[in-house]
Every structure is written in C-alpha cells, then in structure tokens.
Write a structure and sequence with these properties.
GO terms for molecular function: acid-amino acid ligase activity. Pfam families: GH3, GH3_C, GH3_M. The protein is an alpha/beta fold and 508 residues long. It has 17 helices and 18 strands. It has 3 domains: 185 residues, Rossmann fold (3-Layer(aba) Sandwich); 149 residues, no CATH class; 131 residues. The termini are far apart.
C-alpha cells in the first residue's frame, strides 16, 4: 500500500476542499496595486509617477495612459541596461539575484531578463498551485511516491558580478525546495552538465536506476531524451523501463504538433498537463482534465493586459503600436487572439512577452497559446497565426499517417515573381509526394482560416513543400543557439533567415 502517497494525496485533497473559489478580476486589481506600491520609489516608478497613478480614481486607466508599451529591446535600452552597470532600484527595488538568458526563437543573441527573489517565490507558488491542481486529475496514490524527471537547461549557472545567469528552467531547478530533491531527477550532478548531449547520455545510462512517474520539459527535447533512453536500452517504448510513468507536464510551446510523435514513444496512455513558464515568469498552468487550456496565475506577481491581435495594431517587426488598446480581464472575449502584456515583480512593465493567446473560459481565466506576434504571417492578407498552422499540420499527420513535430514557413516570391508560402516539414515520411502534401496543406489552411482562403484567390499563388528529417531542425537549433533548455524552432522566417535555413537544410 502506498502509505506516503495516500498521505500526500490526502493533503492535496484537503487543501483543495478548503480553497475558496478565486475571483480572478479582483485578484488582478490587488496584484496591480501591489506592483505599483512596491515599485513607486524605484527610478521607473518615480519617472512614471506611480504615486499619482495609485491616487487616481481609476488606477488602471491612469496606468495605461501613463506608461507606454515595452518590448525587450525598448525596456533594456531605456532601463534594464542600468542594472548591468551596478545601479539598484531601477524598475524593481534592489537588484535581481538572477538574469534569465533567452534567445527564444529569434536568434543567437541572448536576452538578459531580470529574475528577482520575488519572482523566484512567485514561480515557486505557481508550482505549488500546479501540485494541488493534481487533485482534479484523479491520479492514484502511488503516483505521489514516484520520481519526477525535469529536463531543462543546465543548473550550473554562470556567476557574473553580483548575480547568476542561466535559462529560466535552470534557475527554477536550482531553487527547488530541499524536501523535493529526493523526487527530482536527473539530480543535481547530471543537471549541472552544460553539454546537452552529454547530459542526455548520462540520463540514458542511469535511467534503469529511477522510478519515473512524471516528466517535465519542452516537447521536442523530451522526445529526443526519451528516444535516447529507448535506443540505449534497446526498448520498444519508454514504459519498458519506466512502467509507472503517468504524467507529462508540457511547456514552452503548444503541445499539439508533438502529440502524435510523443505518444508513439509510450507503451500506455499518460496524462498530459500543459504549463506556460516563460523567462519573464510563470504565466499559466492547466488545472483540470476537461480541457487542455491553462489558467492564468492571476494572484501571483503578474498583472496581465490583452491587446486585440489585429494587423492595424502591430508593427512589421512584431512590436505594438502605442495607440493599440489594452483590455483588462473583465473586458476580453472568447475566440479572439490577444497579444499578451505583463507587468511583474521582476520589474517588467507593460511588457510585450511576444506570445498571442485566446480565452476559452473567461470566468476561469483559462487560455490557450495561439502563436507569436513575430510569427503572424500576413503577407498578401493570409493572416495565419501559429495555431492555424498547427491545425493544418495536424490534418496532414492524419491524412498521411505520419508525425510532423517540426516545421517552418516563409512567404516570398517564387521564380515566376508570384507570392508563395514555402514550407519545410520535419517528418520521416518515406517516398514523399511533396506536390500531394502541398495540395493537402493548402486545403487544410483554407479550411482553418477564411482570410487565407481569400488570399489564395487573389495575390497568394500557392504552397510549396519540402520534407526533411526532424533531426535537421534540431541540428539547426544547435548550430544557431544551443540544444535543449528553452530553445524553440522559429515557425515563421523572414527571407534572409529562410535562405540560411534552406542552404543548411539542403546541404547538411
């Protein structure tokens, strides 16, 4: 009998029973007030007159009227660069203990995003919320005695001046509480290995020593790790070595494109729980099994705003026009894409995180990630967001009985001078008829998006497809950024980047 598991499960159920239903709108009002009060004496707070905003009859309106939108480049050039010169009390009291390095999906150059002790605590509290939400998934008691494989970036953080630097998953893993370390795998020694291939090799070598009940990490890298373990031990599937694996906590990107290839590595069904941890904070987590949408962490160090994601509000580089309207949680609608804006206990203010979301349940504050502001493809009016592309890719997987975990696209003129969408699909398809795939993809996109359908009848001439092995995408990421961690493939490329990609993909 799982005595410890029953105790832990009982505590989780008791905590859930005592928890009062959350009013997310009220929670957000309190968060905004806390942020403004705490930061009012910082250089940023004084410059933007937080004292006056707090005294205003409508503090939200005063907040939105008084402070512009920022993206990383703008806030770093105007404010955060001062932190690297030793200044304190810049956009948040004191100095950050960490900087999260993030190249994201946009290039080699790492952003350096401040992570304060308050943010570390906010992430910890969000993680506790996720644990207590497991009550809703009706997991057996013995699950709570199993080990958890957290595959992120290296926890061997780089010391620089008076702070540490690394990717957010490495920062989070280096701050796990002491009581959790017995459950945490691959353990501190392996987690500190910087080279991703070497780290995964050690995981494969030690895999038989662990009783893994849950996985956590970005889907593409989790899949490669699982495949390495399977190959190393000559297994049919991962359950041959980890028979008690029951839960996978996905994050970083939408799980949809990886669903089929992920489950192909399993010997039996597992529960997939989506999370949304970004370098700027723990945004949301799935709290119930009836949906794969995630609940915003509305009471935990982040204040959210939502800008309708429409072409007239977006600059060509993916940044927001300052006149774009911002909505609060009580003003949003379902079935509408929004650019997500956050203000946080790390000193981000009205910060464009770069993701687009839509609400599936406003009362529960539940969302889905629909794409990236920079990956919105609107050449000749096609208005394709990443979620529409993912939907079309899912149809292709079914139609051609394959998996397509990776893809990228560029809109450009072909040799005939007409505009085409050029797609590279990562798949192990044999004897591929790329023309047939292109026709099927074109039809799936027409079905998914009426704007695309209109564009295809006008200036968009057609679709061109090239199928390459998924490994080509991972090799590209390694060449341009680094394997593992928070690294993700760019779904949409500009022409210059796409030419580099084509040369790499076709000549590698």
């Amino acid at each position: 009998m799982a005595i410890l598991g029953n105790i832990i499960k009982g505590v989780i159920h008791l905590k859930a029973a005592l928890t009062v239903k959350k009013d997310h709108v009220e929670a957000q009002k309190k968060v905004l007030e806390h942020l403004l009060q705490t930061a009012k004496n910082t250089a940023f707070g004084k410059f933007y007159k937080f004292d006056e905003i707090l005294k205003a009859d409508n503090s939200f309106e005063a907040f939105t009227d008084g402070i512009p939108y920022f993206d990383y480049n703008k806030i770093n050039e105007e404010w955060w660069h001062k932190l690297h010169k030793g200044q304190t009390d810049v956009t948040w009291p004191g100095s950050p203990s960490y900087f999260a390095l993030s190249s994201g999906t946009t290039g080699k150059t790492s952003k350096r995003i401040p992570v304060t002790d308050d943010m570390v605590e906010a992430i910890r509290q969000a993680g506790i919320k996720q644990v207590f939400a497991l009550k809703n998934f009706d997991l057996p008691a013995d699950f709570f005695e199993k080990e958890i494989m957290m595959l992120g970036s290296s926890t061997d953080l780089e010391e620089r001046n008076d702070h540490l630097e690394g990717e957010i998953s490495g920062i989070s893993a280096s701050n796990i509480p002491s009581w959790f370390r017995g459950y945490y795998k691959p353990g501190e020694e392996i987690a500190q290995i910087d080279d991703w291939d070497a780290r995964v090799q050690r995981i494969a070598e030690r895999a038989k020593d662990w009783d893994i009940g849950a996985l956590s990490g970005i889907p593409s890298w989790i899949e490669l790790m699982l495949q390495k373990v399977i190959d190393y031990h000559s297994l049919d599937n991962i359950h041959d070595i980890w028979p008690n694996l029951q839960v996978y906590t996905s994050g970083g990107v939408a799980f949809g494109p990886y669903e089929k290839s992920f489950h192909a590595l399993m010997g039996k069904p597992v529960t997939v729980i989506d999370t949304y941890l970004a370098s700027e904070g723990y945004i949301a987590t799935q709290v119930r099994p009836e949906t794969d949408a995630m609940q915003l962490n509305t009471d935990n160090g982040i204040y959210f705003e939502f800008v309708p994601f429409k072409p007239e509000y977006i600059n060509k580089d993916g940044s927001l026009k300052q006149e774009a309207p911002a909505l609060t949680l009580d003003e949003v609608e379902t079935d509408q894409d929004y650019a997500l804006i956050i203000s946080t206990v790390s000193g981000s203010w009205r910060y464009l995180i770069g993701d687009t979301i839509e609400f599936t349940d406003i009362e529960r504050a539940e969302i889905k990630i629909t794409g990236r502001t920079k990956f919105f493809l609107n050449t000749v009016g096609s208005q394709l967001s990443v979620n529409k592309m993912d939907t079309a890719i899912g149809k292709l997987e079914t139609q051609f009985d394959t998996t397509i975990p990776e893809y990228t696209i560029c809109a450009k003129r072909g040799d005939d001078g007409e505009f085409y969408h050029f797609w590279y699909l990562g798949s192990e398809l044999k004897d591929t008829d790329e023309d047939a795939i292109a026709n099927a993809l074109d039809q799936a996109l027409k079905d998914a998006n009426k704007n695309y359908r209109v564009a295809r009848n006008k200036a968009l001439k057609g679709v061109e497809v090239k199928v390459v092995p998924p490994s080509r995408f991972y090799d590209w990421n390694e060449r341009n950024k680094k394997k593992g961690g928070q690294v993700k493939m760019e779904r949409v490329m500009g022409e210059d980047k796409f030419k580099e990609w084509e040369d790499f993909a076709n000549n590698n």
